[in-house]
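Reagents: none. Just compute today. ABC transporter permease.
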Amino acid sequence: MRRLSRAGRDALTDLWLAGPATVMMIVLIFVPVAIVALLSFTDYQFGARSFRFVGLENYTTLFTDPIGRRAVTNTLLYVAVVIPFSMGLALLVAMALHEMATWSRMLSNVLRAAYFLPVAATLVAMALAWQMLLHPSIGLFNAVLSHLGFPRQDLLSDRGLVLYTLAAIGIWQTIGYNMVLFLAGLAAIPRHLYEAAEVDGADRPWERFWTVTWPMLGPTTLFVAVITATQSFRVFETVATLTDGGPAFASETLVYALYREGFVYFKAGYASAITMVFFAFVLALTLLQFRILERRVHYK
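Predicted 3D structure written out:
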Protein backbone atom coordinates (compact mmCIF):
# COMPACT_ATOMS: atom_id res chain seq x y z
CA MET A 1 0.00 0.00 0.00
CA ARG A 2 1.31 3.35 -1.01
CA ARG A 3 2.34 5.59 1.88
CA LEU A 4 0.75 9.01 2.23
CA SER A 5 2.82 12.10 1.70
CA ARG A 6 3.69 14.38 4.60
CA ALA A 7 1.02 16.87 3.48
CA GLY A 8 -1.55 14.07 3.36
CA ARG A 9 -0.63 12.87 6.85
CA ASP A 10 -0.85 16.42 8.18
CA ALA A 11 -4.27 16.83 6.57
CA LEU A 12 -5.51 13.59 8.15
CA THR A 13 -4.13 14.68 11.52
CA ASP A 14 -5.89 18.04 11.25
CA LEU A 15 -9.11 16.29 10.26
CA TRP A 16 -8.82 13.86 13.17
CA LEU A 17 -8.19 16.65 15.70
CA ALA A 18 -10.59 19.31 14.44
CA GLY A 19 -13.18 17.16 12.68
CA PRO A 20 -15.24 16.01 15.70
CA ALA A 21 -15.41 19.51 17.17
CA THR A 22 -16.37 20.94 13.78
CA VAL A 23 -19.14 18.38 13.33
CA MET A 24 -20.48 19.09 16.83
CA MET A 25 -20.49 22.84 16.14
CA ILE A 26 -22.40 22.31 12.92
CA VAL A 27 -24.92 19.95 14.52
CA LEU A 28 -25.42 21.82 17.80
CA ILE A 29 -25.01 25.46 16.71
CA PHE A 30 -25.27 26.16 12.99
CA VAL A 31 -28.09 23.72 12.18
CA PRO A 32 -30.33 24.96 15.05
CA VAL A 33 -29.66 28.58 14.03
CA ALA A 34 -30.65 27.75 10.46
CA ILE A 35 -33.84 26.05 11.67
CA VAL A 36 -34.74 29.03 13.87
CA ALA A 37 -34.10 31.41 10.96
CA LEU A 38 -36.39 29.31 8.77
CA LEU A 39 -39.13 29.12 11.40
CA SER A 40 -39.06 32.91 11.81
CA PHE A 41 -40.69 33.20 8.38
CA THR A 42 -43.56 30.87 9.33
CA ASP A 43 -46.59 30.88 11.63
CA TYR A 44 -45.61 27.56 13.18
CA GLN A 45 -46.91 26.79 16.67
CA PHE A 46 -45.66 24.02 18.92
CA GLY A 47 -47.79 20.92 18.43
CA ALA A 48 -49.31 22.07 15.14
CA ARG A 49 -49.34 19.57 12.30
CA SER A 50 -48.92 22.18 9.60
CA PHE A 51 -47.70 25.71 9.12
CA ARG A 52 -47.42 28.27 6.36
CA PHE A 53 -44.79 30.76 5.30
CA VAL A 54 -45.72 34.32 6.21
CA GLY A 55 -42.60 36.11 4.98
CA LEU A 56 -41.64 39.10 7.14
CA GLU A 57 -44.95 39.21 8.99
CA ASN A 58 -43.42 38.14 12.32
CA TYR A 59 -40.72 40.80 12.08
CA THR A 60 -43.29 43.43 11.09
CA THR A 61 -45.44 42.48 14.06
CA LEU A 62 -42.50 42.75 16.43
CA PHE A 63 -41.64 46.31 15.36
CA THR A 64 -45.21 47.58 14.90
CA ASP A 65 -46.96 45.99 17.86
CA PRO A 66 -46.72 48.25 20.95
CA ILE A 67 -45.65 45.37 23.19
CA GLY A 68 -43.02 44.22 20.71
CA ARG A 69 -41.64 47.74 20.32
CA ARG A 70 -41.57 48.10 24.10
CA ALA A 71 -39.49 44.93 24.41
CA VAL A 72 -36.99 46.23 21.84
CA THR A 73 -36.68 49.72 23.33
CA ASN A 74 -36.49 48.39 26.90
CA THR A 75 -33.68 46.03 25.93
CA LEU A 76 -31.70 48.76 24.18
CA LEU A 77 -32.18 51.15 27.12
CA TYR A 78 -31.14 48.44 29.60
CA VAL A 79 -27.99 47.72 27.58
CA ALA A 80 -27.18 51.42 27.24
CA VAL A 81 -27.30 51.84 31.03
CA VAL A 82 -25.60 48.61 32.12
CA ILE A 83 -22.59 48.52 29.77
CA PRO A 84 -20.93 51.89 30.57
CA PHE A 85 -21.70 51.86 34.29
CA SER A 86 -20.72 48.23 34.75
CA MET A 87 -17.41 48.68 32.94
CA GLY A 88 -16.62 52.04 34.53
CA LEU A 89 -17.35 50.96 38.09
CA ALA A 90 -15.56 47.63 37.60
CA LEU A 91 -12.45 49.46 36.38
CA LEU A 92 -12.52 51.82 39.37
CA VAL A 93 -12.92 48.93 41.81
CA ALA A 94 -10.17 46.92 40.09
CA MET A 95 -7.73 49.84 40.22
CA ALA A 96 -8.52 50.49 43.90
CA LEU A 97 -8.06 46.83 44.85
CA HIS A 98 -4.91 46.59 42.74
CA GLU A 99 -3.37 49.49 44.64
CA MET A 100 -4.70 48.20 47.96
CA ALA A 101 -2.87 44.90 47.42
CA THR A 102 0.47 46.75 47.72
CA TRP A 103 -0.14 47.54 51.42
CA SER A 104 -2.85 45.07 52.53
CA ARG A 105 -3.17 41.95 50.41
CA MET A 106 -5.51 40.27 52.89
CA LEU A 107 -8.03 43.13 52.84
CA SER A 108 -7.77 43.29 49.05
CA ASN A 109 -8.53 39.57 48.74
CA VAL A 110 -11.52 39.84 51.10
CA LEU A 111 -13.00 42.70 49.07
CA ARG A 112 -12.36 40.84 45.82
CA ALA A 113 -14.33 37.88 47.13
CA ALA A 114 -17.15 40.19 48.26
CA TYR A 115 -17.39 41.88 44.87
CA PHE A 116 -17.28 38.51 43.09
CA LEU A 117 -20.03 36.99 45.25
CA PRO A 118 -22.93 38.00 42.92
CA VAL A 119 -21.20 36.12 40.09
CA ALA A 120 -20.78 32.93 42.11
CA ALA A 121 -24.21 33.02 43.77
CA THR A 122 -27.40 31.61 42.25
CA LEU A 123 -29.00 34.41 40.27
CA VAL A 124 -32.60 33.53 41.14
CA ALA A 125 -31.77 33.43 44.86
CA MET A 126 -30.06 36.82 44.63
CA ALA A 127 -33.07 38.20 42.75
CA LEU A 128 -35.34 37.07 45.58
CA ALA A 129 -33.01 38.79 48.03
CA TRP A 130 -33.35 42.00 46.02
CA GLN A 131 -37.13 41.56 46.04
CA MET A 132 -37.10 41.55 49.82
CA LEU A 133 -34.71 44.51 50.02
CA LEU A 134 -36.92 46.57 47.68
CA HIS A 135 -40.25 45.54 49.24
CA PRO A 136 -42.42 48.68 49.57
CA SER A 137 -43.39 48.07 53.22
CA ILE A 138 -40.83 45.77 54.90
CA GLY A 139 -37.80 46.24 52.65
CA LEU A 140 -34.55 47.66 53.97
CA PHE A 141 -34.30 50.21 51.13
CA ASN A 142 -37.63 51.84 51.99
CA ALA A 143 -36.87 51.65 55.70
CA VAL A 144 -33.75 53.73 55.08
CA LEU A 145 -35.71 56.17 52.91
CA SER A 146 -38.37 56.54 55.58
CA HIS A 147 -35.72 57.08 58.27
CA LEU A 148 -34.15 59.85 56.17
CA GLY A 149 -37.52 61.54 55.69
CA PHE A 150 -38.10 60.56 52.06
CA PRO A 151 -41.32 58.94 50.80
CA ARG A 152 -41.32 55.20 50.25
CA GLN A 153 -40.83 53.96 46.69
CA ASP A 154 -42.18 50.81 45.09
CA LEU A 155 -39.32 50.50 42.61
CA LEU A 156 -40.55 47.23 41.10
CA SER A 157 -44.09 48.49 40.46
CA ASP A 158 -43.36 52.01 39.22
CA ARG A 159 -43.46 52.06 35.41
CA GLY A 160 -40.96 54.90 35.28
CA LEU A 161 -38.43 53.34 37.65
CA VAL A 162 -38.67 49.58 37.23
CA LEU A 163 -36.37 49.28 34.22
CA TYR A 164 -33.69 51.44 35.86
CA THR A 165 -34.03 49.34 39.02
CA LEU A 166 -33.39 46.18 37.01
CA ALA A 167 -30.46 47.91 35.31
CA ALA A 168 -28.98 48.76 38.72
CA ILE A 169 -29.29 45.11 39.72
CA GLY A 170 -27.67 44.13 36.41
CA ILE A 171 -24.75 46.47 37.11
CA TRP A 172 -24.38 44.93 40.57
CA GLN A 173 -24.34 41.45 39.00
CA THR A 174 -21.66 42.17 36.41
CA ILE A 175 -19.22 44.38 38.33
CA GLY A 176 -17.54 41.42 40.03
CA TYR A 177 -16.80 39.50 36.84
CA ASN A 178 -15.56 42.59 35.00
CA MET A 179 -13.44 43.51 38.02
CA VAL A 180 -11.61 40.17 37.84
CA LEU A 181 -10.88 40.70 34.15
CA PHE A 182 -9.59 44.23 34.73
CA LEU A 183 -7.46 43.01 37.65
CA ALA A 184 -5.84 40.47 35.33
CA GLY A 185 -5.16 43.23 32.82
CA LEU A 186 -3.69 45.53 35.46
CA ALA A 187 -1.41 42.78 36.78
CA ALA A 188 0.00 42.25 33.29
CA ILE A 189 1.12 45.88 32.84
CA PRO A 190 4.93 46.10 33.32
CA ARG A 191 5.96 48.39 36.17
CA HIS A 192 8.80 49.92 34.16
CA LEU A 193 6.23 51.65 31.92
CA TYR A 194 5.02 53.68 34.89
CA GLU A 195 8.60 54.51 35.80
CA ALA A 196 9.29 55.66 32.23
CA ALA A 197 6.11 57.75 32.21
CA GLU A 198 7.13 59.37 35.49
CA VAL A 199 10.53 60.25 34.04
CA ASP A 200 8.76 61.86 31.07
CA GLY A 201 6.74 64.06 33.41
CA ALA A 202 3.59 61.99 33.99
CA ASP A 203 3.93 61.99 37.77
CA ARG A 204 0.26 62.43 38.65
CA PRO A 205 -2.08 59.41 38.97
CA TRP A 206 -4.47 60.77 36.33
CA GLU A 207 -1.63 61.32 33.86
CA ARG A 208 -0.24 57.82 34.47
CA PHE A 209 -3.69 56.38 33.90
CA TRP A 210 -4.13 58.06 30.49
CA THR A 211 -0.57 57.48 29.27
CA VAL A 212 0.01 53.92 30.53
CA THR A 213 -2.91 52.15 32.20
CA TRP A 214 -5.72 52.90 29.76
CA PRO A 215 -3.76 52.17 26.55
CA MET A 216 -2.33 48.94 27.96
CA LEU A 217 -5.80 47.80 29.05
CA GLY A 218 -6.99 47.95 25.43
CA PRO A 219 -7.35 44.17 24.84
CA THR A 220 -8.96 43.66 28.25
CA THR A 221 -11.40 46.53 27.70
CA LEU A 222 -12.43 45.13 24.32
CA PHE A 223 -13.06 41.69 25.80
CA VAL A 224 -14.98 43.12 28.78
CA ALA A 225 -17.14 45.25 26.47
CA VAL A 226 -18.13 42.27 24.33
CA ILE A 227 -18.87 40.03 27.32
CA THR A 228 -20.87 42.73 29.11
CA ALA A 229 -22.90 43.49 25.99
CA THR A 230 -23.78 39.83 25.54
CA GLN A 231 -24.79 39.43 29.18
CA SER A 232 -26.86 42.62 29.12
CA PHE A 233 -28.81 41.68 26.01
CA ARG A 234 -29.79 38.29 27.42
CA VAL A 235 -31.16 39.58 30.73
CA PHE A 236 -33.95 37.22 31.77
CA GLU A 237 -33.73 35.85 35.32
CA THR A 238 -34.24 39.14 37.14
CA VAL A 239 -37.15 40.10 34.88
CA ALA A 240 -38.83 36.70 35.28
CA THR A 241 -38.29 36.60 39.05
CA LEU A 242 -38.99 40.20 40.03
CA THR A 243 -41.46 41.70 37.55
CA ASP A 244 -42.71 39.18 34.96
CA GLY A 245 -42.21 41.96 32.43
CA GLY A 246 -44.54 44.34 34.26
CA PRO A 247 -45.99 46.58 35.31
CA ALA A 248 -47.84 47.02 31.99
CA PHE A 249 -44.82 45.61 30.06
CA ALA A 250 -42.59 48.40 31.43
CA SER A 251 -39.78 45.89 32.08
CA GLU A 252 -40.42 43.65 29.08
CA THR A 253 -37.19 42.60 27.33
CA LEU A 254 -36.46 40.66 24.17
CA VAL A 255 -35.44 37.45 25.91
CA TYR A 256 -38.46 37.53 28.23
CA ALA A 257 -40.75 38.23 25.26
CA LEU A 258 -39.11 35.27 23.49
CA TYR A 259 -39.84 33.05 26.50
CA ARG A 260 -43.45 34.21 26.81
CA GLU A 261 -44.30 33.92 23.12
CA GLY A 262 -42.50 30.61 22.64
CA PHE A 263 -43.11 28.71 25.88
CA VAL A 264 -46.33 30.25 27.21
CA TYR A 265 -48.25 31.02 24.01
CA PHE A 266 -46.35 28.39 21.94
CA LYS A 267 -45.89 30.78 18.98
CA ALA A 268 -42.69 29.20 17.72
CA GLY A 269 -42.58 31.25 14.51
CA TYR A 270 -42.92 34.59 16.29
CA ALA A 271 -40.48 33.52 19.03
CA SER A 272 -37.98 32.54 16.33
CA ALA A 273 -38.26 36.02 14.80
CA ILE A 274 -37.55 37.56 18.22
CA THR A 275 -34.53 35.26 18.51
CA MET A 276 -33.15 36.41 15.16
CA VAL A 277 -33.65 40.09 16.08
CA PHE A 278 -31.88 39.44 19.38
CA PHE A 279 -29.01 37.76 17.52
CA ALA A 280 -28.81 40.66 15.05
CA PHE A 281 -28.60 43.24 17.86
CA VAL A 282 -25.86 41.33 19.69
CA LEU A 283 -23.88 40.79 16.48
CA ALA A 284 -24.21 44.44 15.41
CA LEU A 285 -23.13 45.77 18.80
CA THR A 286 -20.20 43.35 18.96
CA LEU A 287 -18.98 44.36 15.49
CA LEU A 288 -19.39 48.04 16.39
CA GLN A 289 -17.34 47.56 19.56
CA PHE A 290 -14.61 45.78 17.60
CA ARG A 291 -14.57 48.54 14.98
CA ILE A 292 -14.34 51.34 17.56
CA LEU A 293 -12.15 49.76 20.24
CA GLU A 294 -9.85 47.71 18.01
CA ARG A 295 -8.20 50.90 16.75
CA ARG A 296 -7.31 51.84 20.33
CA VAL A 297 -6.00 48.43 21.35
CA HIS A 298 -2.28 48.08 22.01
CA TYR A 299 -1.34 44.41 22.01
CA LYS A 300 1.70 43.46 24.04
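The mean pLDDT is 87.
Action item: order primers for follow-up constructs.
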